Amino acid sequence: MLTRESPTPDRRLAAEIVSFTRRSARRYKRSRISWGERFVDAYSWGLGIAVSLTIAASFVLALRNEIAGRASTGNSIIGTQWLILPEPVLWSAVTYAFLLVVANLARKLGPITVGGPESTWWLSLPIDRRPMVLPPFLRKVALTGAGLAVVYLPFSMVTAVNRTAAEHLVASATFGAAGVIAVTLAAFQQLDMLGPRAGRAATMTALLACAVLPAVPASPWLAAVAGLAAVVLLAVAGPRTGEVRGEELIRGGAVAGHTGASLFMMDTNEVLRALGGGRKTVDGGRAAGFFAKPVGGPLRALIRADVVAFLRLNPPLIPSLLWMLACIAMLLVEGGLPEFAQLAIVVIAGCATASGMGGVARKTALVPELDALLPLHPALVRGSRTLMPCLAMAAWMAVLSGLLVFLGASDPALIAVGALAGVGMGAGTLRSATKAAPDWSAPPVDTPFGPVPRAQLGTLMRGLDVTILAMVPLLVGLYLGYTPGIVGIVQALFSAGIVLVSVLSRPKRA
Prior knowledge:
The chain is mostly helical. It contains 23 helices and two strands.
C-alpha cells in the first residue's frame, strides 16, 4: 500500500532555515552599524525626503492650477485643434502604459526569486521551497501596491481636478490594486501557468480593464472589485510559489540584483544591460543579405559589422512608436496642455527613444580593448558606432516633426530641423554608452536636500546633456510656431558639434 508523506515537516524545516538565515543577517548588520550612524542616516534621509516631498507637492499644486485654467489661456504649440482627444481616453492610455511597464519589469525581475547566497545552498536542499520564496514575494507585492498608490495620488490630483480628496484616495487605492494584479500575472507566467503568448495576451487584457477603473468616477466599489481580484490572484499563485524552476529563480534573482546594484551605483548603462540581458530576439534574416556582400578595406568592413549588429540586435520598434504616439496624444488632448508640459513630453520621448538605439555601443564598450586592435584611428571606430543610431534617430525625429507639421505646430522647414536634431541625438547615445562608471571616491556636497553626489551626477548626465542640447533649436521652432532660417543654421551647428565631440573625445576611465 502506497502512502504519501506529509510535506508539513519539510515546510517547517524550510521555515526554520529561512528564519535562521534572516536572524543571522540582521545580527551581522547590527554589529557593523552603531546607533550614532543609524541616527545620522535616519536624520539625513528624513530631511531629504521631507524637503523633496515639499517641493514635489508645490510643483503638483502649481501644475494642477495651470491645467485647471488652461481653457481660459488656450496656450498650446498647436494653434487650432482640429482633432480633439477626450481627456479620460488620454489618461487611461497613460495609466495602461504605466501598468504594462510594471508588468514587464516584474516579469524581468522575477517576481519570485532568490538571491545569490540563497541560491547557493537553499535550492540544493531536498525540501519545500515555498517558505523560502513566498514571504519575499508577498513583500514585493505589498511594496509595489503601496508604492503605486502613492505615485498615482499626484497624477490623480493633476489630471482630475474636480475630484474630492476621498475620491483621489480611492482612485489611488484602485491603481495600487491594479499594480498588484500586474505583478501577480507576471508570477503566473513564471509558474508556467500561462504560456508566453497566452500570458502576454491575458496580461494586456486584464491591465486594460484595470487602467479604465481609476479614470471613471471614483467609487469604493471599484476599489473593492480591484482589491478582490488582486486577493484572488494572490490566493491562486501563493500556494504554488514553491513550484518555480530553480533556473528561473536564479535568473530573476541575478537580474534583480544586477539592476538594484546598478541603480544604487547610479550607472544607467548597467541598468539597461541588466534589463536587456534576457532579450533573445536576434534576427539574422534582415542582415544576412547585407552581410554576404564583399567589402574593401577595414573601415567598410567595420561599418558593415556595426550595421549588421544594429539590425541583428533588433532595436525595439514598439516603444519608439509608443513614444511618438504619446507626443501626438499630449497635443490633441481636450483643452490642450500647457506649452511647457507639451515640450517636456517631446524631450522625454526623444531621450527615451535615443537610449534604445545605443545597444551596440553599450555592448562594445564592455571590451574597449577589441576596438584598440582594429587597424583604424579611434575616431573612425567611434564614427562607425555612431552611424546607425544617427540615421535611426534622424528618421524618427523627421517622422515626429512631420506629424507635428501636419497638426499645424510649425511650417515644413521643421522636418529638416528635426532630422538634424536626430543626428545629434544619435551621437549622444555613443557619448552615453562610453562614459566611465561613477567615481565614488569624490565626497558628496551638503545641500538643503541632504548630501548630493555631485561628481556622480555629472557622470550620470554624460550623454543625456548633449541629447537634450541637440533638441533645443527644435523646441524653439515649436515654441515660435514657425522655423526661421537661423534656427536651422543653429541646429546644424549644434548637431555637427555634438557629433564631433562624441567621435573625437576619448572615453574617460574611472
